[in-house]
Amino acid sequence: MGEFDLIAALRERLPAPPPGVLVGSGDDAAVTAAAGSSVVSVDAIVEGVHFRRRWAPPEAIGRKALAAGLSDLAAMGAEPGEAYVALGVPSDLDEPGCLELLAGIEAVAGRYGAALAGGDVSRSGVLFVSVTVVGRLAAGERFVTRGGAGAGELVVLTGELGGAAAGLRLLEGEIEAGLGDEVAAALRSRQLDPRPRLAEGRALAGAGATAMIDLSDGLGADAAHVAAQSEVRLEIDAGQIPLQAGVEQVAAALGVEALELAAGEGEDYELLACLPEGFLERARSAIADLGGSLTVIGNSVPGEGVKLSAPSGRELRVRGYDQLA
Amino acid sequence: MGEFDLIAALRERLPAPPPGVLVGSGDDAAVTAAAGSSVVSVDAIVEGVHFRRRWAPPEAIGRKALAAGLSDLAAMGAEPGEAYVALGVPSDLDEPGCLELLAGIEAVAGRYGAALAGGDVSRSGVLFVSVTVVGRLAAGERFVTRGGAGAGELVVLTGELGGAAAGLRLLEGEIEAGLGDEVAAALRSRQLDPRPRLAEGRALAGAGATAMIDLSDGLGADAAHVAAQSEVRLEIDAGQIPLQAGVEQVAAALGVEALELAAGEGEDYELLACLPEGFLERARSAIADLGGSLTVIGNSVPGEGVKLSAPSGRELRVRGYDQLA
Hints:
2 copies of one chain form a homodimer. Chain A has 325 residues and is an alpha+beta fold. Chain A has helices at 3-12, 58-76, 95-112, 163-172, 181-192, 198-206, 219-230, 247-254, 258-264, 280-289, 321-324; strands spanning 21-23, 30-33, 37-46, 79-89, 115-123, 128-137, 154-158, 211-214, 233-237, 271-275, 294-301, 306-309. In chain A, the strands form 3 sheets. In chain A, strands 8-10-7-11-9-12 form a 6-stranded mixed β-sheet, sandwiched between helices. In chain A, strands 3-6-4-5 form a 4-stranded mixed β-sheet. Chain A has a two-stranded antiparallel ribbon with strand order 1-2.
């Protein structure tokens, strides 16, 4: 099947665009009504780097590609608008595979109220999915960058960490961790079907978060981005980090510390934020209303870099942290 | 060098964002002031499919990636706003190569008044550059889709065709066409440094064009898109198509008809538009004011598909045309 036929087949599956999309997929460009501010992020996932087809079916690849993009909107406190997809298709991914991948993107778009408004399909030596997401902020609405934290604030974290890294090890078949089926399935699902914290991001923005980032690269690396851009030092007590069920067992089977897995690897797509202590109860209650949890894991102090202490008192060495701290 | 260092090095080279960009590269997402309508297009170019590093230096790869995206904005009649780049970097493209590629993107952005506002860098088995461009339309400003042409209109074309296809053959070293240095350089440059017709697109939108497309896939395939979406038949006299100097000689050296090269292959990034005859002089004069040319190459009639006639009276067979007509 040619590139044009594939594009036509993909386009047929799309639902009708919502009213704000004046021209959707199928023209030179999409046209959308614009007001307030646009929030735009681009993320690509690449076979052999971010996933392997051995364990990630096409639908999961599509889901993860869009979820990672939407997670960036969550970290700004923005509402999802449109998504655009550039797909690189290798010769061994057939039409049903491409349609499955699109179905995964559509499923995540539908779940979070985003509209797939355009895209591009190319042949490629490796499978890649590059997703651009456009979010919206009403005129004057507050958004949160990585750079707004001051010294003397709390460092807070949504949800639990380590699940995506542990799930990856189970999917790669590296270990036998002796987990129950449900716990193992939840870990694999954390890797294959990540949930961007869009509602939580807006709640934290509304509750007065001063800086925010989504944990895509790992707590160590991502906290270092916030520290660098806010020009503060973040002192994090890794013992406070909530771990997803099963992470301890996977870490034990790998012979590593669970906290190094949880803080050193990314893709949990939880949110790390800074906020003044006086705003904590409001933020906690807003997150609880969404069925989530918010945990204080540290403080911002004058200085630079990140200090990540284990319960033993020693500093954890995690990926991305040494270079950035 | 790690991914973070490369991103930092790339970011350092960026000029300060213009006033409409509230948050530029370096946060979870960019934030831009929005008003009127946004026009968004995504295009990826992939090594081995759209270019080869044997003949395309990194700077040319960057230039072409952004130019192709901006050409989609031209075809809507939109003003360029921001560009976002997802870069897939293979192990044999080093840091200076990546910076050169970025310099190519920046050169084209500067030439057309676009701002590079964000991006993503991944390792990848093949080099790819996925570019998202966001254009602007003031509130109520006219834009042109592929679907607005009626029967009884003229089909018009900006500039000359065939140069990108002929330039590709010279770069691939397939032929010795015996061309003068200047003519050969202009053909190669048409392939390596395409010029999106942004001012021409806005002029045609202002002059009353009813449908418009940029010639990225080739006249045959692209005219078929307009015919399908406008629900008219386009009858094109290929003998009227202006050819770039040297295209005849390259075609002769390849043993093909020059018109098949000019109408069957893409990447010239000229604009094809439909407009009522009464608007022709206004459109021609607007394009002439920009130093360009506008040529009538056919008519729209009731029906469907594209008829592409050679001067001999026979129908040309060109890529993309059979499947789409």
